[in-house]
């Protein structure tokens, strides 16, 4: 018997596939779904990591956060006791001044608080996050309005307890629609506030609320809203990345003079990102493992079809061998 050419083998394979279209489609579908699931879930996990990293960069660079509560456990993951510490610990202006006196190498030291509230303009009312901080916050957090979008509040305005605010882009759009919000007055938690600027659209979230739905006010105005002078967090900006570790150690040493080590945390952006990425990495692996099951099922399906196909063609194979066909 003449040895079949490559083209003849291809034609025979195609004829066999066409004879069993349903079987071929179902088998291929199992593999396609399995491979697509693994690739898609892995891509989503990596994309989410990149998105979060970009969000942190948009919040400012070389930042150190002094926060109430123990944020991380000894293993590096998020601590389960951070919530309790957050509720039981708060800072005050004396803590801020002490850090400023001792961390002269820092670019800026900024006290901040966050509150929930409602903003109203005419007949429109929206839920908002109120971020109250000292005047340097705009520059440090990349929130300063661009040209033509107003200004950030100044040191003089802060010292005079000015009732002014910079609006996030989304809240400005929802409250004012097509109107220019600059120099307009809105009502925030029953207090009249003058709009002096609109921040650029950033996306992401802050303190559980959307960044673009936040309004930014001077620290003293925030104290008025809160009804106390407690400070929730202190931001320290290093002048360069090389300073971060030294500033963290010094800040922690200063805070330990007043607070227990488990009642506060001094962390930088890289620590937060590492912990989030570790969680996302574990989640991605778990989801990829689940997706791989469908790939395994597809593979078993192919093996099953191959066995069925060989069984169905036993007579044909025997006939071919009888007339001189060989495996090679």
TrEMBL record:
Residue ranges annotated for the MacB-like periplasmic core domain, each copy included = 24-253
GO cellular component terms listed in the entry, alphabetical order: plasma membrane
Keywords of the record, alphabetical order, are: Cell membrane, Membrane, Transmembrane, Transmembrane helix
Q: Where is the ABC3 transporter permease C-terminal domain?
A: 290-327
Asked whether the UniProt record includes Ubl conjugation among its keywords, one would answer no
Which family is annotated? Belongs to the ABC-4 integral membrane protein family.
Name this protein carries in UniProt: ABC transporter permease
């Amino acid at each position: 018997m003449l040895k079949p050419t490559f083209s003849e083998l291809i034609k025979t394979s195609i004829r066999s596939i066409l004879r069993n279209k349903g079987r071929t489609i179902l088998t291929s579908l199992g593999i396609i779904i399995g491979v697509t699931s693994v690739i898609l879930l892995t891509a989503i996990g990596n994309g989410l990591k990149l998105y979060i990293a970009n969000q942190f960069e948009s919040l400012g660079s070389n930042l150190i956060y002094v926060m109430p509560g123990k944020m991380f456990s000894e293993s590096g993951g998020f601590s389960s006791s951070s919530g309790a510490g957050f509720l039981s610990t708060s800072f005050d202006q004396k803590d801020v001044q002490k850090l400023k006196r001792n961390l002269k190498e820092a670019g800026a030291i900024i006290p901040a608080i966050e509150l929930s509230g409602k903003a109203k303009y005419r007949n429109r009312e929206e839920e908002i996050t109120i971020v109250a901080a000292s005047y340097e916050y705009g520059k440090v957090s990349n929130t300063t309005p661009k040209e033509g979008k107003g200004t950030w509040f100044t040191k003089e305005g802060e010292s005079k307890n000015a009732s002014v605010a910079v609006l996030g882009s989304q809240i400005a759009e929802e409250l004012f629609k097509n109107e220019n919000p600059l120099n307009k007055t809105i009502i925030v938690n029953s207090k009249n506030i003058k709009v002096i600027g609109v921040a650029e659209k950033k996306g992401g979230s802050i303190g559980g609320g959307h960044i673009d739905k936040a309004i930014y006010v001077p620290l003293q105005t925030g104290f008025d809203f809160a009804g106390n002078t407690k400070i929730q967090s202190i931001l320290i900006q290093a002048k360069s990345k090389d300073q971060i570790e030294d500033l963290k150690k010094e800040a922690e040493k200063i805070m330990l003079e007043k607070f227990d080590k488990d009642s506060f945390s001094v962390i930088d952006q890289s620590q937060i990102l590492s912990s989030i990425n570790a969680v996302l990495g574990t989640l991605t692996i778990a989801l990829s493992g689940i997706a791989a099951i469908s790939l395994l099922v597809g593979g078993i399906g192919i093996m099953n079809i191959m066995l069925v196909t060989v069984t169905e063609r036993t007579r044909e194979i025997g006939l071919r061998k009888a007339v001189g066909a060989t495996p090679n």
